[in-house]
Hints:
It is a single chain. By secondary structure, this protein is of the alpha/beta class. Helix content is 58%, strand content 14%. The chain is built from 12 helices and 7 strands. The protein has helices spanning 11-22, 38-44, 54-64, 82-89, 123-135, 145-172, 177-182, 186-199, 203-211, 216-236, 239-252, 257-272; strands spanning 2-6, 26-30, 47-50, 73-76, 94-100, 113-120, 139-142. A 7-stranded mixed sheet has the order 2-1-3-4-5-6-7, sandwiched between helices. Helix 5 (123-135) links the parallel strand 6 (113-120) and strand 7 (139-142). The radius of gyration is 22 Å and the shape is elongated. It starts with a strand and ends with a helix. The model has no long low-confidence stretch (mean pLDDT 95).
Amino acid sequence: MRIGIIGGRGGMGTLFSRIFSDAGHEVLVSGRATPLSNADLVRACEVVIVSVPIRSTVPVIREIAPLLSGDQLLCDFTSLKAASVAAMLETRADVLGLHPMFGPSVSSLQNQTIVACPARVAPGRADVLLAVFREAGAKVTTMDPLEHDRLMAVVQGLTHFTTLSLAGAMRRLSVDLPALLSVTSPVYQIEMAVIGRILGQDPGLYGPILGENPAVPEVLDAFEAAAAEVRGAVESGDDEVFARLFNKDAAFFADYIPHATEDSEALIRCLAEK
Length: 274
Protein backbone atom coordinates (compact mmCIF):
# COMPACT_ATOMS: atom_id res chain seq x y z
CA MET A 1 0.00 0.00 0.00
CA ARG A 2 1.30 3.48 -0.86
CA ILE A 3 0.64 5.94 1.94
CA GLY A 4 1.14 9.69 1.58
CA ILE A 5 1.63 11.99 4.57
CA ILE A 6 1.08 15.71 4.06
CA GLY A 7 3.26 17.32 6.71
CA GLY A 8 5.43 14.23 6.65
CA ARG A 9 8.58 16.11 7.65
CA GLY A 10 7.07 17.24 10.96
CA GLY A 11 7.44 15.32 14.20
CA MET A 12 4.31 13.21 13.94
CA GLY A 13 4.68 12.75 10.19
CA THR A 14 8.25 11.53 10.63
CA LEU A 15 7.21 9.09 13.36
CA PHE A 16 4.43 7.53 11.30
CA SER A 17 6.52 7.47 8.13
CA ARG A 18 8.85 5.15 10.00
CA ILE A 19 5.98 3.07 11.42
CA PHE A 20 4.36 2.55 8.02
CA SER A 21 7.71 1.83 6.37
CA ASP A 22 8.58 -0.71 9.05
CA ALA A 23 5.22 -2.39 8.36
CA GLY A 24 6.22 -2.83 4.72
CA HIS A 25 4.29 0.03 3.12
CA GLU A 26 5.66 2.58 0.68
CA VAL A 27 5.51 6.10 2.15
CA LEU A 28 5.59 9.44 0.33
CA VAL A 29 5.77 12.75 2.17
CA SER A 30 5.09 16.35 1.26
CA GLY A 31 5.64 19.58 3.14
CA ARG A 32 6.77 23.17 2.81
CA ALA A 33 10.27 22.21 1.68
CA THR A 34 9.83 18.89 -0.14
CA PRO A 35 10.28 18.32 -3.89
CA LEU A 36 6.90 16.54 -3.87
CA SER A 37 3.87 18.85 -3.68
CA ASN A 38 0.65 18.04 -1.86
CA ALA A 39 -1.08 17.64 -5.23
CA ASP A 40 1.62 15.24 -6.50
CA LEU A 41 1.30 13.19 -3.33
CA VAL A 42 -2.50 12.94 -3.57
CA ARG A 43 -2.35 11.79 -7.18
CA ALA A 44 0.16 9.04 -6.31
CA CYS A 45 -1.24 7.49 -3.10
CA GLU A 46 -4.03 5.12 -2.08
CA VAL A 47 -4.07 6.53 1.46
CA VAL A 48 -3.58 10.23 2.18
CA ILE A 49 -2.96 11.42 5.75
CA VAL A 50 -3.02 15.10 6.69
CA SER A 51 -0.55 15.72 9.53
CA VAL A 52 -0.40 19.50 9.96
CA PRO A 53 -1.22 21.93 12.81
CA ILE A 54 -4.85 22.19 13.92
CA ARG A 55 -5.57 25.53 12.27
CA SER A 56 -4.03 24.37 8.98
CA THR A 57 -5.86 21.04 8.75
CA VAL A 58 -9.19 22.11 7.24
CA PRO A 59 -7.54 24.49 4.70
CA VAL A 60 -5.21 21.69 3.57
CA ILE A 61 -8.12 19.25 3.24
CA ARG A 62 -10.00 21.78 1.11
CA GLU A 63 -6.87 22.38 -0.98
CA ILE A 64 -6.58 18.71 -1.95
CA ALA A 65 -10.34 17.93 -2.06
CA PRO A 66 -10.77 18.34 -5.86
CA LEU A 67 -7.96 15.83 -6.48
CA LEU A 68 -9.36 13.00 -4.35
CA SER A 69 -11.40 10.08 -5.70
CA GLY A 70 -13.67 7.48 -4.19
CA ASP A 71 -10.86 4.94 -4.52
CA GLN A 72 -8.75 6.71 -1.91
CA LEU A 73 -8.77 6.76 1.88
CA LEU A 74 -8.37 10.19 3.50
CA CYS A 75 -7.22 10.50 7.13
CA ASP A 76 -5.91 13.18 9.47
CA PHE A 77 -3.88 13.22 12.71
CA THR A 78 -5.50 16.33 14.22
CA SER A 79 -6.18 16.65 17.96
CA LEU A 80 -9.76 17.80 17.24
CA LYS A 81 -11.97 15.66 15.05
CA ALA A 82 -15.39 17.20 14.33
CA ALA A 83 -14.23 19.98 12.00
CA SER A 84 -11.61 17.93 10.17
CA VAL A 85 -13.92 14.94 9.64
CA ALA A 86 -16.69 17.21 8.36
CA ALA A 87 -14.24 18.76 5.88
CA MET A 88 -13.02 15.33 4.76
CA LEU A 89 -16.61 14.18 4.20
CA GLU A 90 -16.99 16.96 1.62
CA THR A 91 -14.50 15.07 -0.59
CA ARG A 92 -15.17 11.93 -2.65
CA ALA A 93 -12.70 9.84 -0.64
CA ASP A 94 -13.39 7.36 2.13
CA VAL A 95 -12.85 9.06 5.49
CA LEU A 96 -11.13 7.86 8.67
CA GLY A 97 -10.25 10.46 11.32
CA LEU A 98 -7.30 9.56 13.55
CA HIS A 99 -5.92 11.09 16.75
CA PRO A 100 -2.68 9.69 18.18
CA MET A 101 -2.89 10.40 21.92
CA PHE A 102 0.85 10.99 22.29
CA GLY A 103 3.62 13.17 20.96
CA PRO A 104 6.23 12.39 18.31
CA SER A 105 8.95 11.77 20.92
CA VAL A 106 7.70 8.23 21.70
CA SER A 107 10.08 5.50 20.64
CA SER A 108 7.31 3.10 19.60
CA LEU A 109 3.54 2.64 19.62
CA GLN A 110 3.74 0.05 22.40
CA ASN A 111 0.93 0.72 24.93
CA GLN A 112 0.03 4.00 23.22
CA THR A 113 -3.57 4.98 22.36
CA ILE A 114 -4.92 6.05 18.97
CA VAL A 115 -8.52 7.23 18.61
CA ALA A 116 -10.18 6.31 15.30
CA CYS A 117 -13.27 8.06 13.92
CA PRO A 118 -14.46 5.98 10.94
CA ALA A 119 -16.86 8.38 9.24
CA ARG A 120 -17.27 6.90 5.76
CA VAL A 121 -15.19 3.81 5.23
CA ALA A 122 -15.81 0.08 4.93
CA PRO A 123 -14.68 -1.75 8.10
CA GLY A 124 -12.30 -3.95 6.11
CA ARG A 125 -10.57 -0.97 4.53
CA ALA A 126 -10.19 0.82 7.84
CA ASP A 127 -8.85 -2.34 9.46
CA VAL A 128 -5.99 -2.58 6.96
CA LEU A 129 -4.64 0.74 8.27
CA LEU A 130 -5.59 0.23 11.92
CA ALA A 131 -3.90 -3.18 11.90
CA VAL A 132 -0.57 -1.40 11.38
CA PHE A 133 -1.10 0.44 14.67
CA ARG A 134 -2.33 -2.60 16.56
CA GLU A 135 0.55 -4.78 15.35
CA ALA A 136 2.96 -2.09 16.55
CA GLY A 137 1.45 -2.39 20.05
CA ALA A 138 -1.05 0.48 20.07
CA LYS A 139 -4.56 0.37 21.50
CA VAL A 140 -7.14 1.68 19.00
CA THR A 141 -10.34 3.19 20.41
CA THR A 142 -13.22 3.89 18.02
CA MET A 143 -15.30 7.01 18.67
CA ASP A 144 -17.74 9.47 17.11
CA PRO A 145 -16.00 12.79 16.21
CA LEU A 146 -18.29 14.95 18.37
CA GLU A 147 -17.91 12.63 21.36
CA HIS A 148 -14.16 12.67 20.79
CA ASP A 149 -14.05 16.46 20.99
CA ARG A 150 -16.23 16.53 24.11
CA LEU A 151 -13.88 14.10 25.83
CA MET A 152 -10.78 15.96 24.59
CA ALA A 153 -12.16 19.12 26.19
CA VAL A 154 -11.58 17.29 29.49
CA VAL A 155 -8.62 15.00 28.69
CA GLN A 156 -6.60 17.74 27.00
CA GLY A 157 -8.40 21.04 27.55
CA LEU A 158 -9.09 20.79 31.27
CA THR A 159 -5.74 19.14 31.99
CA HIS A 160 -3.73 21.76 30.11
CA PHE A 161 -5.78 24.62 31.54
CA THR A 162 -5.21 23.33 35.08
CA THR A 163 -1.49 22.81 34.45
CA LEU A 164 -1.07 26.34 33.05
CA SER A 165 -3.06 27.75 35.97
CA LEU A 166 -0.75 26.01 38.45
CA ALA A 167 2.28 27.39 36.62
CA GLY A 168 0.78 30.86 36.56
CA ALA A 169 0.00 30.77 40.29
CA MET A 170 3.59 29.81 41.08
CA ARG A 171 4.87 32.61 38.86
CA ARG A 172 2.58 35.14 40.55
CA LEU A 173 3.81 33.95 43.95
CA SER A 174 7.46 34.20 42.79
CA VAL A 175 8.01 30.69 44.11
CA ASP A 176 11.63 29.68 44.57
CA LEU A 177 11.54 26.56 42.36
CA PRO A 178 14.85 25.01 43.52
CA ALA A 179 13.74 25.39 47.15
CA LEU A 180 10.33 23.97 46.30
CA LEU A 181 11.80 20.97 44.51
CA SER A 182 14.17 20.31 47.41
CA VAL A 183 11.21 19.50 49.66
CA THR A 184 9.03 17.55 47.22
CA SER A 185 8.46 13.84 47.61
CA PRO A 186 8.04 11.64 44.50
CA VAL A 187 4.27 12.16 44.28
CA TYR A 188 4.73 15.94 44.05
CA GLN A 189 7.70 15.52 41.74
CA ILE A 190 5.32 13.85 39.29
CA GLU A 191 2.98 16.84 39.39
CA MET A 192 5.86 19.28 38.94
CA ALA A 193 7.27 17.20 36.10
CA VAL A 194 3.96 17.49 34.21
CA ILE A 195 4.07 21.29 34.55
CA GLY A 196 7.66 21.42 33.32
CA ARG A 197 6.94 19.02 30.47
CA ILE A 198 4.03 21.08 29.14
CA LEU A 199 5.90 24.38 29.44
CA GLY A 200 8.86 22.90 27.57
CA GLN A 201 6.75 22.40 24.44
CA ASP A 202 5.26 24.55 21.69
CA PRO A 203 2.51 26.99 22.79
CA GLY A 204 1.28 26.82 19.20
CA LEU A 205 -0.04 23.33 19.94
CA TYR A 206 -1.75 24.01 23.26
CA GLY A 207 -3.42 27.29 22.30
CA PRO A 208 -5.53 25.73 19.51
CA ILE A 209 -6.36 22.65 21.62
CA LEU A 210 -7.96 25.03 24.12
CA GLY A 211 -9.20 27.71 21.75
CA GLU A 212 -10.53 25.71 18.80
CA ASN A 213 -12.59 23.09 20.66
CA PRO A 214 -16.16 24.40 21.09
CA ALA A 215 -16.67 22.06 24.06
CA VAL A 216 -13.91 23.74 26.12
CA PRO A 217 -15.84 26.80 27.45
CA GLU A 218 -18.39 24.61 29.25
CA VAL A 219 -15.54 22.61 30.79
CA LEU A 220 -13.78 25.76 31.99
CA ASP A 221 -17.05 27.03 33.50
CA ALA A 222 -17.28 23.77 35.46
CA PHE A 223 -13.65 24.15 36.57
CA GLU A 224 -14.20 27.69 37.83
CA ALA A 225 -17.34 26.62 39.70
CA ALA A 226 -15.50 23.67 41.25
CA ALA A 227 -12.57 25.87 42.30
CA ALA A 228 -14.98 28.34 43.92
CA GLU A 229 -16.70 25.48 45.75
CA VAL A 230 -13.40 24.15 47.10
CA ARG A 231 -12.33 27.64 48.14
CA GLY A 232 -15.62 28.15 49.92
CA ALA A 233 -15.19 24.89 51.82
CA VAL A 234 -11.62 25.82 52.81
CA GLU A 235 -12.50 29.35 53.88
CA SER A 236 -15.53 28.15 55.87
CA GLY A 237 -13.18 26.60 58.42
CA ASP A 238 -15.77 23.86 58.85
CA ASP A 239 -14.26 20.37 58.66
CA GLU A 240 -17.65 18.81 57.96
CA VAL A 241 -18.28 21.10 54.98
CA PHE A 242 -14.87 20.19 53.53
CA ALA A 243 -15.38 16.46 54.23
CA ARG A 244 -18.78 16.46 52.50
CA LEU A 245 -17.28 18.01 49.38
CA PHE A 246 -14.26 15.70 49.46
CA ASN A 247 -16.43 12.60 49.91
CA LYS A 248 -18.80 13.66 47.14
CA ASP A 249 -15.90 13.81 44.68
CA ALA A 250 -14.42 10.57 46.06
CA ALA A 251 -17.76 8.82 45.43
CA PHE A 252 -17.70 10.02 41.79
CA PHE A 253 -14.20 8.53 41.34
CA ALA A 254 -14.82 5.43 43.50
CA ASP A 255 -14.43 2.82 40.75
CA TYR A 256 -11.23 4.43 39.47
CA ILE A 257 -9.50 5.04 42.81
CA PRO A 258 -7.98 1.52 43.18
CA HIS A 259 -6.53 1.66 39.66
CA ALA A 260 -5.27 5.22 40.18
CA THR A 261 -3.63 4.23 43.45
CA GLU A 262 -1.88 1.27 41.83
CA ASP A 263 -0.61 3.32 38.87
CA SER A 264 0.57 6.26 40.98
CA GLU A 265 2.32 3.95 43.43
CA ALA A 266 4.23 2.40 40.49
CA LEU A 267 5.30 5.87 39.33
CA ILE A 268 6.31 6.86 42.85
CA ARG A 269 8.43 3.71 43.20
CA CYS A 270 10.16 4.47 39.88
CA LEU A 271 11.08 7.97 41.04
CA ALA A 272 12.10 6.83 44.50
CA GLU A 273 14.42 4.20 43.04
CA LYS A 274 16.08 6.50 40.47
